TrEMBL record:
Residues 1-26 are annotated as: Disordered. The keyword S-adenosyl-L-methionine does not apply. Its cofactor is heme. Residues 1-10 have a biased composition (Polar residues). Keywords: Heme, Iron, Metal-binding, Monooxygenase, Oxidoreductase. It comes from Mortierella alpina. It holds the Pfam family p450. One of its GO terms (molecular function) is oxidoreductase activity, acting on paired donors, with incorporation or reduction of molecular oxygen. InterPro entries: Cyt_P450, Cyt_P450_CS, Cyt_P450_E_grp-IV, Cyt_P450_sf. Coiled coil: none annotated. Belongs to the cytochrome P450 family. It comes from the Eukaryota. This is Cytochrome P450.
Amino acid sequence: MVSRDGSSVDKSIPTASLRPGETNHDAEYDEDADVFLARCEEQYGPVFNIYKFNRFYTVISDPLLREVFRSENLSFGDGLDDITGIHAFTASVTRAKRKFSDSAIHEMVRDMVTPNLALFTPTIVERMQTMVDREVGFSKDRKFVEDPLLFFQEMIASAMATVFMGHEIANDPQVLQTFIECTHDLARVTDPRTSDRRWRAFFNRAKYGLVNPLQKHIRVLVDAATPVVQERRRQEAEALEKGLAYNRPLDIMQGILDHFDQYGVVDLEDVCGHLLVMILVSVHTTSDSSTYLNYYLAAFPECIDVLYQEQLEVLDQICKEREEQRQSKLVSGEVSSVEDFAGTALDPRNDRDLSAPAVKRMVRVDSFVRECLRFRTTGAGLPHVAQEKVALSNGMTIHKGSRIIINLRSSHLNQDLQGEDAGQFRPWRFVGKSKAATKVASDFIPFGMGRHACPGRFLAVQKLKTVVAVMVSRYDKFEMQDPSKKMKALHARLGEQVPTGLYFTSR
Ligand code: HEM
């Protein structure tokens, strides 16, 4: 059965035993994935086969999991496509039929998003604050948000629309709606609750391979972008004519337009297609994590004031330093009066902004975010498919076509890697440990590892930290509508329906 399914034919890889009367591992896994995986690890060691969701998987655990991420012949993109058919979905919007894991998409994020993070931060913060103040607001009574995921999707989509397409386009309500709808479309493609998981990939391939339902989103983006791009071209030509430097907009759309050839992009429609792929990979993942950070704040209320106090201390310190810098410029005569700082980098009105350097200094927020991601990311996940035969260092062989899945608990709940209290949520676990939430290694794999490690993690973590900072600065009490759903909220997987609503009480 193992070899027929295309899974590893290496006979030295054991297959986990089934419970009496069961024909697959689904029920045992669904009851408690971590208990099931711990049993298998104890019985069989770090590599074993399981039969789950009608497929054989070779489970790889610590210390061998780094070999999966480092191998060029094991692909996460193909592993996800195998379950969901996601490649047909993202390929349908670009001329080159790009997968989300295509090197061009990776390079766009790496070269244009990450280096400009500090410059994007004020926009991200402003968008998030506006959205929270408008939708949740301040009131004496606690405010109820029935579907927190919907709320955070809107918040993240709004911030990302500006980063990807610039202010002018992001202010178009249809564009924002497109960002949100795309996220819902992707959630449907990857939905882990799909009743017949066997047919999910097949249906998605048929749907997105034959017709192209994402085309309507491309049209909205192209229609909104066309006049803006024309105006930018006009301004650039005018600046050139007058011998002036053109003030190039910072968004990713401009970056792609400026590097058409490098990324193999054909026209504006294709630019919008590439932006859509980036929207798909970024908004869904980040809004999901943002939502669950708020459930963790509700479950561990003792964190809220610690996080808020840190924020106040960091901002006080920054205010002090900026005032010292202003004074020294006044004393040296470089600047003649306080009023002259208006509109400059040292404008006193920006002293208490949640700037990129301020967010970077919030080490407790960083540790809280990393601990939430660690604690949540357990069970088995990050499926891979072997494109070629791979020899593991323990002598076992993964054959071409085999399906691999990572034993996440063997990293995130591993006492040797995390400490004896690996099973407990300790929000300040990483403070002073030089283990930032962006730092991938075999003890922290929510963003994968190796050459294909998520290139968007710097933006993602920046956004997640900002969400925490914005929320604790406005609310001092976070409560679950149904506290009995706490465990479900802490361990929900990406794409699962939110377990309960949230109440927010203003400071
Ligand atoms: C909390 C949010 C996020 C999580 C948990 C996440 C997680 C992941 C994971 C697990 C991978 C696979 C890594 C591997 O194969 O080793 C990945 C790949 C990727 N992610 Fe993210 N991601 C997030 C946010 C983002 C954002 C914001 C962007 C874009 C701005 C992004 C862009 C990508 C791309 C392009 C890839 C494919 C990389 C490749 O195959 O070379 N992600 N992400």
